Amino acid sequence: MASDDIDPAETPVAEWVDRLAQAKGAPGGGAACGVMTGIAAGLLGMVAAYTDDDPEARQAEQRLSRTRRLALDAAEEDGVRSAAFGAALAMDQGPDRERAVRDATVVAVASALDVGRVAASLLEEVRLLADIGNPHVEADLRVAVEALRAALEGTNHTARANLDLLARHRTADDHLDPKVAAFERDLVDLAAKRAECTRIAAGWSSE
Question: Which domain of life is it from (predicted)?
């Protein structure tokens, strides 16, 4: 871990949020999406734990414990990458800065999408727990879905902003077309997951 970064899994919540509020950008929005994903995984884990005597819930609880750690690892890694991104932007104008910004922006988009993929993996658990979960903690399940939806929406905003920045720093010979196309496909996939979250939440709202 970079010396200027903090691990959300090992840092008191108040301290982490205070750091988020500073003009550092590390952690930033991408890391916040990772933490929101961790919150969603934690709440889903709680619903699974409250669903007694169901072997599927026990298995989900174990998977969600791993996903929660993956989400916080992704949040920490995004903070590290955000620090490198900020350092590139702070360089003096010139060809070296252009190249550094381009490279750091590609990494930043990939980092946001890493968070998004972890978040998207939680939809399977949402479907399962919406079906078998203890109804007494349905409110917590709903909060989990809202946190997940926010994480996916935030991932989209972060990745899109970085892709826009990348477009302004590209050159004709940078060979980034295949990578950008892959990023766009990933964003389409995440949009489908986000839409599913929205449909689930809308279904609850209509009850």
Answer: Bacteria
